[in-house]
Write a structure and sequence with these properties.
Number of helices: 2
Number of strands: 9
CATH architecture: Sandwich
Radius of gyration: 19 Å
Order of helices and strands: HEEEEEEEHEE
Shape: elongated
CATH topology: Immunoglobulin-like
CATH class: Mainly Beta
Structural class: alpha+beta
Length: about 140
């Protein structure tokens, strides 16, 4: 009986920890594709709000680096609102020239982050970033 109670307490603690960890990384931002369109590099992002609260505004500052690690561009992007549990796809022309000239993109700063009508102070810690493109997305 005692072992069963201990097991139930441990399971509850693990579930609570998993829920807390999930809410910490509630917004996923994936650099999905990069394609040269005309004379610009267009990045496509897939953004998912995995939280149970809507995100009213999410804006990021991005810095592009070339193959020699030099800064090759800067872009301020706005993902807009993200309803709870919703996935969105957004495209941005972020730099002049071909995408193959960009080696990585730095998420330099969170410009804006409003959750349920008020500014969120810990928004960067809520972001789970990744890339499936040849270009790396980094913090």
């Amino acid at each position: 009986m005692k072992k069963r109670v201990v097991a139930m307490v441990l399971a509850s603690a693990l579930a609570a920890g998993a829920a807390e960890a999930q809410s910490e990384k509630a917004i996923s931002v994936q650099l999905n594709t990069a394609e040269t369109v005309g004379e610009s590099c267009r990045l496509t992002f897939v953004i998912r709000n995995g939280a149970d609260k809507p995100v009213d505004a999410l804006g990021l500052d991005l810095v592009m680096f070339d193959a020699s690690e030099g800064v090759s561009g800067y872009a301020a992007i706005d993902f807009g609102n993200l309803p709870a549990g919703k996935t969105r796809v957004r495209q941005y022309d972020v730099a002049k020239g071909e995408c193959s000239n960009i080696s990585r993109v730095l998420l330099n700063e969170v410009r804006s982050c409003e959750i349920q009508g008020s500014e969120a102070k810990n928004c960067l810690s809520m972001l789970d970033i990744s890339s499936r493109a040849k270009i790396e997305l980094i913090l």
